[in-house]
Amino acid sequence: xxxxxxxxxxxxxxxxxxxxxxxxxxxxxxxxxxxxxxxxxxxxxxxxxxxxxxxxxxxxxxxxxxxxxxxxxxxxxxxxxxxxxxxxxxxxxxxxxxxxxxxxxxxxxxxxxxxxxxxxxxxxxxxxxxxxxxxxxxxxxxxxxxxxxxxxxxxxxxxxxxxxxxxxxxxxxxxxxxxxxxxxxxxxxxxxxxxxxxxxxxxxxxxxxxxxxxxxxxxxxxxxxxxxxxxxxxxxxxxxxxxxxxxxxxxxxxxxxxxxxxxxxxxxxxx
Length: 271
Description:
The chain is mainly β. The chain has one domain (about 1-270): 5 Propeller (Tachylectin-2, Chain A). The chain is about 5% helix and about 55% strand. The chain is built from one helix and 23 strands. The strands form five sheets. Strands 8, 9, 10, 11, 12 and 13 form a six-stranded mixed sheet that branches. Strands 1, 2, 3, 22 and 23 form a five-stranded antiparallel sheet that branches. It is globular. This is Sialidase domain-containing protein. InterPro entries: Glyco_hydro_beta-prop_sf.
């Protein structure tokens, strides 16, 4: 969402935002796809179902004149190359007044999908302009399209947007944008998260479980990767994704390791 705001300031809103994909054999060296997979689309998240189907969720601005009127949509692919038409995502019993934005979707052990989202109280204008503490909620779905909200707040803190959630071993980790840095929270059950004393340079994060910890991606003149063992200081690994020729921003990364051992990433570019 912070990247969405930057895009709005630079070029008149999210109508110039595009969702792109990238692939990797090792999670470090990434090859960007030849074309965007969704337009007027922002803040993507990706998940692989038990059947191997990839689903990209994004904030959908097609046909919507203003921030505050956005919705979530999803596209699907069996091979990561050919994508379906978008389907509107619903969130039943959503507790906040504004839109559900900044999706992060995790596959549960039973095959259901858990959607984490930033629930703003803004009904018009930028969702991230709401005053006071901001809240991250979650919802459950068996088909990845129709979600039902789970009771309670997953995490609450000042200035936060753009949650990205990954499970490492028995623990759940949430990485959140707070301006130009990334905050970290931890949970034993995926429902109640508590802030931990770890930040990363750069905002709008994504995270990937790796052996011995996580790889965290943040936005700093492109997308930068960090290696963290969940204990000590993070180690910067270098640039993962360039902004791209003709683009002002590359941000909002979300990555996963597929069942075949390869890596897949989605991210946003803004002209």
